[in-house]
Amino acid sequence: MTETPARTVTLVVVDDHPVVRDGLRGMFTAAPGFEVLGEAANGVDALAVVDELDPDVVLMDLRMPGGGGVAAIAELTRRGARSKVLVLTTYDTDSDTLPAIEAGATGYLLKDAPREELFAAVRAAADGRSVLSPAVASRLMTRVRTPAADPAENSLSAREREVLVLVARGTTNREIAAELFISEATVKTHLTHVFAKLGAKDRAAAVAVGYDRGILG
C-alpha cells in the first residue's frame, strides 16, 4: 500500500514545448501529493504565472524562445519569491548548469530522469533541499576542484559570461536585453567590459577568444 504524502506540493511547469508541459502535468496529476497550478511557455510568462499562483516549486526549462530560464530564475531570486526552482532540461553543459545554479536554482535534473527520481526531487526542492542529477553534480565538483585555465575567465563577471554566451548564439543586443531583463544600454556596457577584458575588438573576436580560452566551453 502506497503511503499518502503528508502534504500536497504545488507546481508550475515552464517549458516551451506543449507536449512536454502536457506530459508533466499528466504525470504529476496522476501521482498523489502533487497539484499543478499552471504552466508557462517561457521565462517572461513564468514570472507572471509564479507571481499570481505562488507555487511551492517551479519546474523550469532553460532554453526557451521569448525568455530563457536562467534570467527568470535570477529575477525570481531578486524578487525574493517563495517558490523553489527545479531546473528540468536536456542540457548539462557548464554554460547551462553553472549560470542556473548561480542564479538561484534549488536543483538541476535532466529530462531523462526516472519519474520516481523526479517526484523525489520536487519534494526535496519544496523542502528547500538541493537536488542535482549525478551528471551535473560530477560536472560541478570537477569545476570546483579544477583551477581556471586562464585568469581572463575569472575576470568576467557572471552576467558578462551570460552576455558572451548569448552573443555566441547569435543573439542581438535587443534580444539579450529582453532575455536578461536589462536595458540595451546595459547590454552594451557589459559588452564593452567583455571586449576590454578579452582584448577583443568586436563580437566575433570576443566569441573566438571565449572559445579559445575555454570560457565558452
At a glance:
This protein is an alpha/beta fold. The chain has eleven helices and six strands.
Explain what you see.
This protein has helices at 18-30, 43-53, 69-79, 94-103, 115-126, 134-145, 151-155, 158-168, 173-180, 184-198, 203-212, and strands spanning 9-14, 34-40, 57-60, 84-89, 107-110, 131-132. Helix 3 links the parallel strand 3 and strand 4. The chain is of the alpha/beta class and 217 residues long. It has 11 helices and 6 strands. Helix 8 (158-168) packs across helix 10 (184-198) and helix 10 crosses helix 11 (203-212). A 6-stranded parallel beta sheet has the order 2-1-3-4-5-6, with helices on both faces. The protein starts with 8 loop residues before the first strand and ends in a 5-residue tail after the last helix.
The largest pleated sheet is described as: 6 strands, parallel
Percentage of residues assigned to helices: 40-55%
The number of helical elements comes to 11
Average pLDDT across residues?
86
- Gross morphology: elongated
Straight-line N-to-C gap: 48 Å
| Count of extended strands | 6
Q: Unreliable stretches, pLDDT < 50, 5 or more residues? A: 147-154
